[in-house]
Amino acid sequence: MINKTVSSVEEALKGLSSGNTLMLGGFGLCGIPENAIARLVQLGVTNLTCISNNAGVDDFGLGLLLQKKQIKKMISSYVGENDEFERQMLSGELEVDLIPQGTLAERCRAAQAGIPAFYTPAGYGTEVAEGKEIREFDGKMYVLEHAFMADFSLVKAWKGDAAGNLIFKGTARNFNPIMCGAAKITVAEVEELLPLGTLDPNQIHVPGIFVQRIFQGTNYEKRIEQRTVRERRLEILMN
């Protein structure tokens, strides 16, 4: 079996260059490829088109790339936690394509499955459908959406092995699995990289056939995008 392990994030991102289109997994700040993003900042690549459900926050995740003006276009669904994103979008510095979340996910999955396009009712009758083919099926109108075309998919998993088999943990099992194999090259960073034969085949979420490079990440912060807690009430017990 092919060993897809690379020794570092530098080797994992070999060939990535300015002007590339990237898919980046994660939901909010959960399950984002922290090591890969940090390396992109160091590389200084520019004019990137980034496909990601979120755009990080001002000082973390994709927000780091936005600070450096390395992203030309964001294709996203939920971007409400990033002030710099808002500033660049309103000033016209950043191209933005906002997509219904289910459509975003399906366009990733379609690319993974080799399906060029599909029809969905989401967005019909709104700005989302402008300029797109519309067809009626069984009395209901549908919008034609095309699969994404990306150069690199950068995903983050909990565990993986040398063959690229991946297991995700909790909410990180969102956009990460459907972005595997949805680009020319899929790079997986994992918290724990194990030898072949270690993972239970029944627990694998993404088989290694969808992954070209895998490496073990380090120093994960795993930030919480927005911490919400119940206000503590002080109760005085009277005897």
Automatic annotation (TrEMBL):
Keywords: Transferase
Alphabetical list of PANTHER family matching this protein: ACETATE COA-TRANSFERASE SUBUNIT ALPHA, KETOACID-COENZYME A TRANSFERASE
GO molecular function, one term: CoA-transferase activity
Top-level lineage group: Bacteria
Organism, as annotated: Pseudotamlana carrageenivorans
Name assigned to this protein: Succinyl-CoA--3-ketoacid-CoA transferase
One Pfam family, short name: CoA_trans
Lineage: Bacteria, Pseudomonadati, Bacteroidota, Flavobacteriia, Flavobacteriales
InterPro entries the record matches: 3-oxoacid_CoA-transf_A, CoA_trans_fam_I, NagB/RpiA_transferase-like
